[in-house]
Specification:
Layout: H1 2-16, H2 36-62, H3 73-79, H4 84-91, E1 113-120, H5 143-146, E2 150-159, E3 166-175, E4 184-194, E5 200-205, H6 207-215, E6 223-228, E7 250-255, E8 280-282, E9 285-287, H7 288-291, E10 296-298, E11 301-303, E12 306-308, H8 320-328, E13 338-351, E14 357-372
């Protein structure tokens, strides 16, 4: 049975990606009365456990993370913006993460494709501050994101409620190092009519500014935001006070996505109680909360599925991993592998290690069909 487990591992290694040998589940001690269907069930269990380990490795690898971001549930609640674009993402989200695209991803479509980035404001560098002011706002972006084409960029600012209707003058200044006594350049000014008793989110087109920052990252020192009412009170939430968690400014950036080609295939579908011994697709729901991965905002779970079953020697050896398994077992007892022949992506909303909120597509995470190869 140990040889069987190693062969299952080799099949999954090529189909899904690296899984540590230490993650191979141990086979319960065999008993004389064990029947063949039970042996089949054991094989399925090994395939399922290895699939779960593979999913963990795949997600981190495809998101280019060395380890899960160290973000607790409490931190998520504190940082998650209570703003319209975030709510729209959550409202339109398919909780189970299924994708109805009838096509499998090409082999080179491995890494996650970012579609939307939500970057929360942080404290700017001291080089642009005078007496510790301003306390906001700096936005950081990875070099990889800076190479993408910006489709849309919105700066979101939350305004505190006012006791009576008033006119608010919203001003955004571009920060720069203090050299000649000046530390900013005006970017945008808006005149807003605000009703009494209502707080509100205000969005501002930030595409041109962001394009400038991406072309010249060295000029990105952040911005200073103010929203003064007729009495000179600043209504902009830039340094949140107690009770204002999730109301700090943030940038919502949409970048281009790369279309993917597809191909068709066919295969068997089974359930856990099926007596089928041939290669088949079985249901598997992944729960990220079971992983302790609070940094994934949505989906909290998704239908991943897995492949398991026997493949006869008569199947054509169409793919290189059949040769790999035969090399590991030269006597030829392994045969072709039961592996995915069609996979689809999932969309994911998550925090990265810089506490930025990312909405993107992770390819090849759902097994749609299984076959022998």
């Amino acid at each position: 049975m140990q040889k069987s487990r190693i062969l299952i591992y080799l099949c999954l290694l090529v189909a899904y990606g690296p899984v540590g040998l230490g993650d191979i589940p141990q086979q319960p001690s065999e008993k004389a009365e064990d029947s063949e269907p039970c042996a089949t069930c054991d094989t399925r269990q090994h395939s399922k456990l290895l699939r779960l380990q593979s999913i963990k490795s795949q997600i981190l690898s495809k998101l280019r993370l060395n380890q899960p971001p160290n973000i607790s549930r409490d931190v998520v609640k504190q940082l998650l913006p209570k703003a319209p674009p975030m709510q729209q993402l959550l409202d339109q989200y398919d909780v189970l993460g299924d994708d109805n695209n009838d096509g499998a991803l090409e082999d080179d479509d491995y890494h996650a494709t970012t579609e939307t980035i939500i970057t929360i404001a942080t404290k700017p560098d001291s080089i642009v501050q005078i007496d510790g002011k301003p306390e906001c706002c700096f936005f950081t972006f990875s070099p990889k994101i800076q190479t993408n084409r910006i489709v849309k960029a919105q700066l979101w600012i939350h305004l505190r409620p006012v006791p009576e209707s008033t006119t608010v003058y919203l001003q955004i200044l571009r920060l720069k190092p203090v050299t000649d006594g000046t530390r900013h350049t005006r970017i945008r000014s808006l005149k807003l009519d605000v009703n009494s008793g209502a707080s509100m989110w205000q969005s501002i087109d930030f595409k041109q500014v962001l394009q400038s920052w991406f072309r010249q990252p060295d000029i990105n020192w952040g911005v200073e935001i103010s929203a003064l009412d007729s009495n000179g009170n600043d209504l902009a939430v830039t340094s949140p006070e107690p009770g204002e968690e999730g109301l700090q400014p943030f940038l919502e950036v949409k970048i281009t996505d790369v279309p993917k080609r597809s191909r068709r295939d066919s295969g068997l579908d089974c359930d856990e109680h099926s007596p089928e011994s041939r290669c088949c697709r079985y249901p598997l729901t992944v729960d990220f909360e079971d992983f302790g991965w609070d940094w994934i905002i949505a989906p909290k779970r998704y239908k991943a599925n897995y492949c398991s079953g026997e493949c006869e020697f008569m199947y054509l050896q169409k793919y290189p991993h059949t040769h790999l398994v035969h090399k590991a077992n030269p006597r030829g007892s392994a045969g072709p592998c039961c592996t995915p022949t069609k996979m689809s992506p999932i969309n994911m909303l998550y925090f990265n290690e810089k506490e930025q909120i990312i909405y993107g597509t992770i390819p090849a995470m759902v097994v749609d069909r299984c076959g022998c190869s």
